[in-house]
Amino acid sequence: MRAAVFALTEQGAVLAKVIKQAVPQAVAVFLPERMKREYASEDWHFFSHFGSALQESFACYDALVCIMATGIVVRTLAPLLKDKLADPAVVVCDERGSFAISLLSGHVGGGNFFTRQLAEAIGAQPVITTATDVEGRLAPDAFAGQLALLPWPKTRIKTINKALLEREKIDYLVSPFLSHRDFYVKELVKWQLPYREKAEYSYHVCLCPRDELPEEHEVPDKTLYLTPPRLIAGVGCRRNVPKELVWQALENACQKIGRDISFLDAMASVSVKADEAGLLAAARELGVAIEFYEAELLQQRTEEFHLHQSGFVKRQVGTGNVCEAAAICEGLRHSERIRFALPKTKYEQVTVALLWCW
Fold first, then answer.
1. Among residues 31, 55, 211, 257, which one has the fewest Cβ atoms lying within 10 Å of its Cβ?
2. What pLDDT is stored for residue 199 in this prediction?
3. Which residues in the chain land under pLDDT 50?
4. Are 305 and 60 in contact (CB under 8 A)?
5. What is the pLDDT of residue 63?
């Protein structure tokens, strides 16, 4: 997950720095331009107009943290809201760090989980208001958010969650044709959800591959489907890197998000690496396609998504960010719904970023 933290005051800027250092997510900090001189040594962003900066960042980050009054955030974000399955998580903190409020995309976007994680890191009180969380019931869309599953159709989320609050029995079923089926069954057991081989009750949550979904008008009234995303690896590397180092980097990156390397569906890099034998061999052995994107497009995505840039890399290949930008390009080729599973991570001669794409 990539997060952006916005602050408006000096005290808020202090808390923003604490958050950047305390949470495990990759964090970018945004402050008013009047603070630029004071924080010139920090690799931060500065804005002349808060509303414009927040709106520009809305589609670029997986989570937004706003250190300010909740009303300011609500009024600024209201015109931007599209879909609870696609909007980023939004958390609001007061400038003293006393409270962390999960404001948007608490379940599928991981906002509630991130709020608790953030609150623990800075010593704040998490404020979670979703009914299933308040009642201590794990909603299927919250479970989906933790495993990067996409709930479908959206209308059934409300149906199943209402049944959950009314103490109805719900079956969790897993298609025999679901890739990595054993992994998902183990996750259901780990989260103490009622997994069954055959349905026993009228309400169902079904984990299945995308191509197994029925037409929306054919979906039973009491059924919600959860489908896995594509997992894309953006890869940057040194010249003549051996396949073994590429493979090791991909393995380690996947382990960081609780998956193994067999979950990868695609790879992507910059076009000047299209003849790299190690990259090509790793993709071939994995049995996945690898796409190469021109440096100009990667630089465009780097700037659009506020990705961290390396001057050395830009001089060498023409773009300041390879792995994250390449993953974004490949993800957007398939869908507008993308989210970082792992931001840029450095390994020996290789950098890797992992991206979910639905």
1. 211
2. 87
3. none
4. yes
5. 97
Helices (H), the chain: 10-22, 50-57, 70-77, 111-122, 131-134, 140-147, 155-165, 181-190, 243-256, 277-286, 295-304, 311-317, 323-334
Structure token pair of residue 291: 């796409």
As a whole number of angstroms, the distance between CA 1 and CA 114 comes to: 10
C-alpha pair distances (Å), 95 with each of 18, 57, 285, 294, 305 = 11, 21, 50, 42, 26
Q: Locate 225 and state its tokens.
A: 């489907």
Its pTM stands at 0.93
State the amino acid at position 57 in one-letter form: S
Match 């696609």 to its residue by tokens. Answer: 86
Grouping H, G, I as helix, E, B as strand and the rest as coil, residue 118 is: helix
Place of tokens 């990705």: 307
**Distance, CA of 72 to chain centre:** 25
Give the residues across from 28 on adjacent strands: 4
The region that residue 195 occupies, defined by phi over 0 for left and psi between -120 and 50 for alpha, beta otherwise, is: beta
Per-residue pLDDT tens over the stretch 70-100: 999 999 999 999 988 999 999 999 999 999 9
